[in-house]
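Subject: design request, 327 residues
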């Protein structure tokens, strides 16, 4: 996933350019406070009724919202079901009456006692999802199976479980803090290097921003997320990957080492120290010094079908300004 891709033709560059601007419009979009409160109230209500923990609903909802096009109207709840599965095969009129949906074997459930199971009603959506999860069980492995049966995609299940873990840890869904990838009290420099050519391992594009700094400068988490991977990579040297709550994978490479307290599966928040700047990579484990010390920082967006790199420069520039302004 992280290996840098080869430049094959002009069409690839055009595609990357398009995906970047599409991503900029949807990444980290912040709805108003009221809609967060409405969502949490719904999650808590269905949790009370079904005993399914609220953070699973929140994680599924957050995942699906961040796979939608930027032109999609903001909804209180974004979880969706296949229409045929909801209404039942043979329910040609798409009747929302609970009795008729039951007769045709549909999944749709009435979550607010109006005898209607409406796939556009937030309470009905969440209650139906709760019933789906409960049909498998509430053990973590059971929930994973339930998610896979609904989404049929391993990365989606993994992302939702990670996001649920973050929401559970912090007890809320309105998590908007961000941090620059390096400790801003140190000297560093960077510019937009996404899309530049690289030659090691074959002709390819650079999928990130290089932030140059001295050996040992602290590398930090930019966001709330879960440590998904850490270790050695031929290209990236000592590297660490974090999956955040916006379906984005954050990739930190060429580090000199890791914070001894950071482990795979750990929840992190903005500003947490992950390790330090180095110059590792471009060879077998332990290779170092083939280039000046710096942090390679990459961002990869999952749209529900595929994962692609986009330019992190506008985002880290914004986070840097925010951090320095708030000192």
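Subject: RE: design request

Done. Sequence follows.
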């Amino acid at each position: 996933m992280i290996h840098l891709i080869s430049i094959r033709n002009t069409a690839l560059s055009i595609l990357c350019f398009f995906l970047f601007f599409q991503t900029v419009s949807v990444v980290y979009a912040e709805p108003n406070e009221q809609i967060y409160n409405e969502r949490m109230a719904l999650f808590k209500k269905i949790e009370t009724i079904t005993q399914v923990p609220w953070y699973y609903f929140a994680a599924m909802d957050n995942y699906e919202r961040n796979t939608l096009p930027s032109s999609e109207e903001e909804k209180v709840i974004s979880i969706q079901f296949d229409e045929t599965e909801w209404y039942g095969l043979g329910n040609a009129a798409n009747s929302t009456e609970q009795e008729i949906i039951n007769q045709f074997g549909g999944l749709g459930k009435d979550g607010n006692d109006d005898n209607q199971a409406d796939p556009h009603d937030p309470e009905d959506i969440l209650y139906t999802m709760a019933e789906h999860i409960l049909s498998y069980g509430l053990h973590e492995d059971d929930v994973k199976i339930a998610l896979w049966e609904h989404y049929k995609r391993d990365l989606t299940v993994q992302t939702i479980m990670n996001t649920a873990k973050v929401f559970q840890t912090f007890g809320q869904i309105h998590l908007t803090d961000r941090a620059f990838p390096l400790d801003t009290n140190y000297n560093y420099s960077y510019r937009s290097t996404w899309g530049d050519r690289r030659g090691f391992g074959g002709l390819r594009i650079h999928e990130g921003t290089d932030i140059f700094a001295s050996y040992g400068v602290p590398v930090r988490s930019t966001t709330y997320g879960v440590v998904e991977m850490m270790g050695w990579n031929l290209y990236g040297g000592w590297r660490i990957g974090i999956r955040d709550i916006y379906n984005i994978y954050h990739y930190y490479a060429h580090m000199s080492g890791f914070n001894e307290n950071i482990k795979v599966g750990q929840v992190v928040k903005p500003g947490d120290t992950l390790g330090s700047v180095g110059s590792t990579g471009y060879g077998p484990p332990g290779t170092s010094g083939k280039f000046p010390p710096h942090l390679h920082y990459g961002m990869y967006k999952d749209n529900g079908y595929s994962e692609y790199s986009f330019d992190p420069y506008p985002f880290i520039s914004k986070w840097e300004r925010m951090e320095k302004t708030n000192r």
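Residues 279 and 292 are 6 Å apart (CA to CA).
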